[in-house]
């Protein structure tokens, strides 16, 4: 089974990240990374349970915080939390993020893997006031150079700077001249720890998959270290094929 087929066989909520809750620890790391402050109007697009809104208001003292999600049950639950804590400068919207008004935002947390959503949001982001910060996790905004990186957290500031190429973008994100197996593993491990799935036993498997994705992308872009496939990459490709019936080698440009 090719890895594309394996991923398509998973529940859509797993692929979209809908069922992945960022921990309070991760949210605080993200807010410190973005230098969130009392002068900010914070939006979390795809806010799920709404913990990010509570933390941004109570601990980072933002001026206003708005959570947007299209899951009505989660929005209703989040709104109850606000009411229980008697917080007046926070709010939630049950809405599609692609049509929601975010024009007053100064900081936005945007973690979506759906390329169609990303493509629709980029023009909205580009129309925001200069200096607005957009935080993504794992992947940068398509076609733009990040202003700040602490992988897996990536920050773009309006107005965006165009990337000359995906190669230039990747080298900036990984802050290296070339990507070897050790670098790929380190960054994949950072991502696994940041999203902290409820089933921690799956984290190792996720790290292996993400390591291979990083290294293969680097190889295909000509920024992997050396011309040969490293032995650890060969080993993990073999493990996935032998024990999980998942094929990834076809992704490597030969």
Taken together, the total number of domains comes to 2
Radius of gyration: 19 Å
Give me the strand/helix succession.
HHHEHEHEEHEEEEEHHHH
The biggest beta sheet is recorded as:
7 strands, mixed
Structural class: alpha/beta
Low-confidence stretches: 13-17
CATH superfamily of the largest domain: Vaccinia Virus protein VP39
Tell me the number of helical segments per DSSP (H or I, 4 or more residues long).
10
CATH fold node name of the largest domain = Rossmann fold
The number of strands is: 9
Helix content: 40-55%
Q: Identify the strand order in the major beta sheet.
A: 3-2-1-4-5-8-7
The N- to C-terminal Cα distance equals: 20 Å
Give keywords:
7-stranded mixed sheet, 15% strand, Rossmann fold, 254 residues, globular, two-stranded antiparallel ribbon
Describe this structure in words.
With 254 residues, this protein is α/β, with parallel strands linked by helices. It has 2 domains: 12-164, Vaccinia Virus protein VP39 (Rossmann fold, 3-Layer(aba) Sandwich); 176-251. The protein is 44% helix and 15% strand. It has helices spanning 3-9, 12-16, 24-33, 51-58, 72-84, 115-126, 166-174, 181-195, 203-221, 231-244; strands at residues 41-45, 64-69, 90-94, 107-110, 133-137, 144-145, 148-150, 153-157, 161-162. The protein has a 7-stranded mixed sheet, sandwiched between helices. Strand 4 (107-110), helix 6 and strand 5 form a beta-alpha-beta unit.
């Amino acid at each position: 089974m090719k890895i594309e087929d394996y991923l398509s066989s998973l529940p859509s909520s797993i692929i979209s990240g809908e069922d992945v809750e960022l921990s309070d620890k991760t949210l605080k790391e993200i807010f410190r990374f973005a230098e969130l402050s009392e002068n900010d109007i914070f939006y979390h697009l795809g806010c799920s349970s709404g913990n990010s809104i509570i933390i941004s208001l109570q601990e980072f003292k933002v001026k206003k915080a708005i959570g947007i999600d299209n899951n009505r049950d989660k929005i209703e639950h989040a709104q109850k939390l606000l009411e229980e804590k008697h917080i007046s400068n926070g709010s939630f919207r049950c809405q599609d993020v692609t049509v929601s008004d975010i024009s007053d935002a100064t900081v936005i947390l945007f973690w979506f893997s759906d390329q169609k959503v990303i493509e629709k949001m980029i023009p909205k982001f580009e129309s925001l006031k200069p200096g607005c910060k957009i935080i993504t996790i794992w992947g940068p905004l398509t076609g733009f150079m990040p202003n700040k990186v602490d992988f897996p957290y990536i920050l773009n500031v309006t107005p965006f700077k165009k990337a000359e190429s995906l190669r230039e973008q990747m080298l900036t994100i990984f802050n290296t001249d070339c990507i070897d197996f050790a670098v790929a593993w380190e960054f994949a491990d950072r991502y696994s720890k940041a999203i902290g799935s409820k089933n921690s036993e799956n984290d190792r498997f996720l790290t292996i998959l993400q390591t291979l994705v990083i290294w293969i992308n680097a190889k295909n872009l000509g920024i992997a270290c050396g011309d040969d496939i490293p032995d650890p990459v060969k080993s993990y490709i073999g493990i996935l094929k032998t024990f999980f019936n998942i094929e990834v080698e076809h992704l490597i440009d030969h």
